[in-house]
């Protein structure tokens, strides 16, 4: 008789491969903890002394302080990063100061050029000078003073426990709609945080910053418009801009303050850039190719005509008519 026909051995338990799980069910407490529990139940466990409790408290405080310092050290940027950031901040401040100095120098040179152009235009072509004076205010070439409307938009500031939301900040499209609404309501001149708006002014965003002709602005945004204050308020309320302001105030919690002002002073915009020019009355300026031999003569005439066309007003500050039709200097 071979092994196949021999007597079978003892049967193996069905859950023999589940010994660890069975032990966990039968003895849920670790043997060491079970021994301590039995000692406490029998009253033979050593009692905790004051010295041992104090030592345990000191150990817990030391571990907590170590964990806190380790977490702080991990969150703190390396010294090299801090130095690089400080260097960049210093360079940014220096560049901003430099830009302000250049802007002031540019304003002085523009005023000098304005005086020369005024003197030339007043003697050569008084009619052209009068036309330039009339177009100087809408073109933003001169500062203006007069009654109008002041609108201040302020970003919502989150309180304690509140999260910051980019939608609760004033965006470029808000200023665009507001400026267009003021123009449609009859504004004669508009400025945002001292930046005069013209027909070529660009209002756009770069990240979280709002740029007006590449000049970064920040909250609060003060929009000043010269004109009839009552008419401007009525025009805003009836148009899309008024609905936008109400939505910013109610839905996005952006501060909106509309105040009529008796005297507003808006600065002039930067000097205009000549992009194209032609000789007045030249029949060949309709698209025909000019004669290369006459390039120097035509160029000199175009430059002279452009200098006359960009001539400024006689006064340093333009006037804006008030609600009663009178002029305000």
From TrEMBL:
It holds the Pfam family DUF881. Keywords: Membrane, Transmembrane, Transmembrane helix. Residues 293-302 have a biased composition (Low complexity). The keyword Ligase does not apply. One of its GO terms (cellular component) is plasma membrane. The chain crosses the membrane at residues 54-74. Residues 282-302 are annotated as: Disordered. Belongs to the UPF0749 family. This is DUF881 domain-containing protein. It comes from Cellulomonas shaoxiangyii.
């Amino acid at each position: 008789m071979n092994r196949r026909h021999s007597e079978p051995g003892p049967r193996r338990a069905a859950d023999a491969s589940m010994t660890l799980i069975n032990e966990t069910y039968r003895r849920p407490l670790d043997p060491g903890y079970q021994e301590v529990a039995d000692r406490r139940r029998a009253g033979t466990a050593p009692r905790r002394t004051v010295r041992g409790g104090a030592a345990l408290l000191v150990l817990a405080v030391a571990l907590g302080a170590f964990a806190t310092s380790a977490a702080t050290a991990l969150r703190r940027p390396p010294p090299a990063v801090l130095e690089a950031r400080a260097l960049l901040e210093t360079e940014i401040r220096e560049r901003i100061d430099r830009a302000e100095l250049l802007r002031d120098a540019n304003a002085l040179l523009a005023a000098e050029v304005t005086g020369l152009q005024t003197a030339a235009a007043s003697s050569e072509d008084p009619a052209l000078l009068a036309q330039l004076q009339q177009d100087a205010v809408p073109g933003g070439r001169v500062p203006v003073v007069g009654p109008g409307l002041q609108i201040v938009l302020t970003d919502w500031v989150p309180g304690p426990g509140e999260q910051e939301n980019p939608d609760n900040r004033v965006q470029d499209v808000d200023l665009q709609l507001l400026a267009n609404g003021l123009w449609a309501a009859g504004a004669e001149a508009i400025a945002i945080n001292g930046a005069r708006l013209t027909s070529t002014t660009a209002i756009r965003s770069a990240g979280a910053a709002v740029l007006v002709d590449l000049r970064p602005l920040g909250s609060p945004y003060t929009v000043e418009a010269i004109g009839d204050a009552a008419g401007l308020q009525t025009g805003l309320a009836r148009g899309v801009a008024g609905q936008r302001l109400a939505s910013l105030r109610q839905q996005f919690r952006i501060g909106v303050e509309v105040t009529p002002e008796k005297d507003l002073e808006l600065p002039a915009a930067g000097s205009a850039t000549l992009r194209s020019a032609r000789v007045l009355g030249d029949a060949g300026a309709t698209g025909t190719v000019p004669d290369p031999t006459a390039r120097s003569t035509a160029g000199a005439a175009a430059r002279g005509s452009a200098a006359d066309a960009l001539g400024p007003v006689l006064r340093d500050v333009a006037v804006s008519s008030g609600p009663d039709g009178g002029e305000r200097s």
